[in-house]
Every structure is written in C-alpha cells, then in structure tokens.
Amino acid sequence: MAFVSMTINGEPVAREVEDHQVLATFLRETLGLTGTHVGCDTTQCGCCVVRLDGVSVKSCTVLAAQADGGTITTVEGLAEGEVLHPVQRAFQTHHALQCGFCTPGMIMAAVDLIDRHPGDLTAEIVREEMEGNLCRCTGYHNIVKAILAAAEEIRGPSSLAAE
Q1: What is the CATH number of the domain that holds 110?
Q2: What is the pTM (predicted TM-score) of this model?
Q3: Are 58 and 97 members of one domain?
Q4: Does residue 160 surpass a pLDDT of 70?
Q5: What was the pLDDT predicted at 95?
Q6: How many domains does the chain have?
Q7: pLDDT tens digits along 65-108
C-alpha cells in the first residue's frame, strides 16, 4: 500500500492506494469520479484520458502512486459551476457525440491538443493528434469540427491556420 496526496479538480485528496491500482480505478472507484471511462485497459481507446500536471495521459496505465503530488483534471473539473468548458460546449453544439462513452476522453484530449497548438490548429492536425482516441459511433467529422470551433472560441478566429 502507498499513501498518495494530489490535487484533483482543484481539491486536495489524500488516500491509501494499492501499489497496483491504476489512476482510472482510483478516480472512478475510490473517488466516485465516473466521468473517466475505461474502455480497453491497454491505452488503445483513449476513453480514460485525464490531465496530469497539465499533460494528457491515459489513466488506465498510470499507477495512482505515480500521480502522487500531482495535479489532475478530469472531465468533471472542466466546467465552472454550471458553465461548460468551451470544448464541452462545442461537442454539444456540433453533435460530436452519440453514445457518449468516448466523449470524456475525447474532450480531455482536445483540451490538451488546443493548449499544445497555439495558433496553428488545422483539421489535419486534429485528425492526426486525436487518432489515439477511438469512437465507434461517429465518423469523427463532427468531433474535428467541435475541436476547431472550441479552439476558435478559446483563442479567437485568427487561431486557426488556413486549410
């Protein structure tokens, strides 16, 4: 057993965890943050993406003990009260989801993608960077539209490169 302390969605958390417990299980089962989904347990699908110290990670292969001292943001931590994050709003507005299972991971990966590409985001970049997030329902077209729209809302119209 290991004792971990971290900040999750702005709140300090301290718990004892099994040495083999992955972060996704810690978030879902120990803390009740069920927005982080587990689809494959092998880092193939991206449903479990969260941000750890500002970087997108697949929480099904990060041990909870490895996150000790870290700052984690889950999909539950993006909205400010009742106001959705621009990426959450764009996914809703652009119908970028169907069953919703992959959506939390897609949203978290999209937030990271937008942060890492200031001013040079194109549909090609979005498609390439999001290929680690699988969706079995959509054709990805609306997901790409939503991410580009969110980037534009966050940074303004000049943030998108000419396609």
Answers
A1: 1.10.150.120
A2: 0.91
A3: no
A4: no
A5: 93
A6: 2
A7: 999 999 999 999 999 999 999 999 999 999 998 888 999 999 99
On whether both 70 and 97 belong to a single domain, the answer is no
Helix axes of 86-93 and 103-116: crossing angle, nearest 10 degrees: 120
Of 88 and 135, more confident: 88
114: domain range?
86-159
CA geometry: angle 153, 154, 156, nearest 5 deg: 60
Q: Which of 74, 72, 77, 50 is nearest to 61 (CA)?
A: 50
The first and second tokens of residue 17, run together, are 């965890």
- Please give the C-alpha separations between residue 57 and each of 26, 36, 74, in angstroms, as whole numbers: 14, 12, 11
Pair 17, 56 in one domain? yes
DSSP string, 67-127: GTT-EEE-GGGTSBTTB--HHHHHHHHTT--SS-SSHHHHHHHHHHHHHH-SS-B-HHHHH
What average pLDDT does this structure show over 94-123?
Answer: 92
Q: What is the strand order of the sheet 11-17 is part of? A: 11-17, 2-8, 71-73, 49-52, 55-58
Residues 58 and 100 in one domain: no
Domain boundary among the residues 32, 47, 77 is at 77
